[in-house]
Design goal:
With 754 residues, the protein is an alpha/beta fold. The chain folds into three domains: 213 residues, FAD/NAD(P)-binding domain (3-Layer(bba) Sandwich); 145 residues, FAD/NAD(P)-binding domain; 188 residues, Phosphoribosyl-aminoimidazole Synthetase, Chain A, domain 2. Helix content is 32%, strand content 23%. The chain is built from 22 helices and 37 strands. Strand 7 and strand 8 form a beta hairpin.
Amino acid sequence: MKTNSPVVKHLVLLGGGHSHLAVLKHLGMKPVPGLAVTLISRDINTPYSGSLPGYISGVYDYDDIHIDLRPLAQFANARIIQEEITSIDFDRKEIALTARPSISFDLLSLNIGSNPDACKIPGADRFALGIKPIQKFIDHWQTLLKKAVHSIRQGKEYKIIIVGGGPASVELAFAAQFRIQKELQLKSADTSLLKIKIISADTNLLSLHNHKVRQFAKSELEKRGVEVILETAVSAFEENIAVCENGNNYSADSMVFATGASIPSWPGECGLALSEDGFIEVNAHLQSTSHGCVFAAGDAATLKGEPRPKSGVYAVRQGLPLAKNLIRFATGKSLTRYKPQQHALALISMGNKTAIASRNNFFFKGHSVWSIKDHIDTAFIKKYSALPEMTTELNIADGLVDRETERQLKLHAMRCAGCGAKVANDVLQEVLQQLPQSKRKDILNQSSAAEDASLIKLDDGRVLVQSIDQIKSFVNDPWLFARIATNHCLSDIYAMGCEPHSALAVVGLPFATKKYGRTQLKELMLSCSEILQEHKCDLVGGHSAEAEEFHFGLCINGFIDEEDLLTKNGMNAGDILILTKPLGTGTLLAADMRFRASHQWMQEALGNMEHSNREAAACFQKFGATACTDITGFGIAGHLLEMLTTNNTEIELNLSDIPVLSGALDTLEQKIYSSLHKDNSLVAHNVFNQEVFAQDPKYALLFDPQTAGGLLASVPESVAEICLAHLRESGYSQAKAIGRVSKLDAVQPAIILQ
């Protein structure tokens, strides 16, 4: 990605907890030139713990309680990696990951959350469900809900045991009961077949709260038919049984534990100092007491001398002080002290849009308390979801251009990357037509031809196919970018029915310290090499240079017999047009730049970009494709016209059949276009029936530039169905027949929308 400053230090944020939300937001609002940031998190769509009871009770939907880390990371110009770590080497300052090279760091921050203590109880992992990690609980909650509702509708009891006596247990009991009763359309008093037990080793329920809160909560639970069993420690979980230390066993259909917090063993095993309660010990600066380059916050950390309950409110409050100290440490400034509040306001949901407020001796309850909690929770999520729009200022002296030119330049200033950064087709063709043509007999195509690869006839009768492609990075992750870019570069070769043989790489590496630049280049080239090896293509050399923005390309060589070549020309009347991948990467990448693309959308889009066209090319060869191309920067309309021009071919295109990536129609309807979209739409004069389809959401998709897009081929009608079946069996699940060739030698090349 573009950088105006050399990278000199690398901050890694490990975990996407509440404190790191504030760090990312702060870095987006106040960037630190020269500081690269990487977020490593198991969950990218991270739930907000405060809203969990509302989700369980049915007040909130899934999206209402989640914060998408991808737009937030984009806002902070941070690389985002969804991975599990295996270890941390503090001597080498490296983090080992499960499925990619290690990540080096200069500064590390841990906000990894916690797990309930009960996860260490024998059988917990097999027979019970922890309230944390929250995302895991959410994934299983709907199953629990369905089982309970189904059982009670069949006239059977459904028993739920909740282990733990803190706020999480109480909120879960209230919320689960309310939701199940709501699904069954039962009155609140009718709990005869739903049996919920809270089992706690503590003497009191809600032991950290005042006696008024404890008394009311226990009384309200019992009033609603929830049994509370205190001073009873669970020692093991067996199938449908909670085994207790006092010899009592309690049967249940579902068992959930929400006990005191703990963290995994790896922080201690890596050498980080731990507090007496087993958490990462930090000083008043939220800095590790054993490693100065490490900071920690949230549930995973304990402030030396001032421990606080493992509550989300403290993690939230630590966010901004953590962000400021990370920046001060990175820039060599003295750190500021963080003084946690002695007591925090606790708001405990009771499932029916009522709640309890508790702080010191303060106690209040009712609908108004829930309204306050609802306002606080929704405002928190909005704070990290509704991000300011990205703006780009033109650095042009006053008077150099007129207002209209300035307006056009501003519209184009937020330039897309990937294939959205290609030179416009009309500009390219105008220049190519002016170039001298080769007179060599062994060159089978000219520079002005529509093909994306050169064809050179060898003495042995074979054809050397050479292609070259280069794209600007659209993600802050060299490893992922290289995988996509490599597959993208291979596509021109596959589109011609050829197998790759060897490759030369071209790398543009943003200016950075040697240490950081070496790390970036290593990730990039290892990733590229891995993909090339999968394709049995050898990397034999290349060229690298410093650049303002990350870019990567490959020159690919392949060999093929001339009669086996697939070109863009050769369609026959009646042929069926088949597209192997969905469209929409251009608008989604543009939305991603504007912090408007969800992780779910981008995960699908990036996954499609990573998907090689190798098997699709083999399938088209097998079933006698008459013409083929890959869909990239000029959009499907532009690349189709390249196929139609030579013979003035006319095709009928079924707009409704074009497969689309999730979210692409949403972003197009919001007028979020790639910067190349306007230039691509210049071919619209060859598109007919526009007056009928111009308002169709898919119409704009015709001009959307694709990065690492699929193949578009014409195949004989007689084999189209079986060809499609083979494509889908080969992993191209969204491959579709999108049109047919209606006429050759027409008045002009034409795309007729159907």
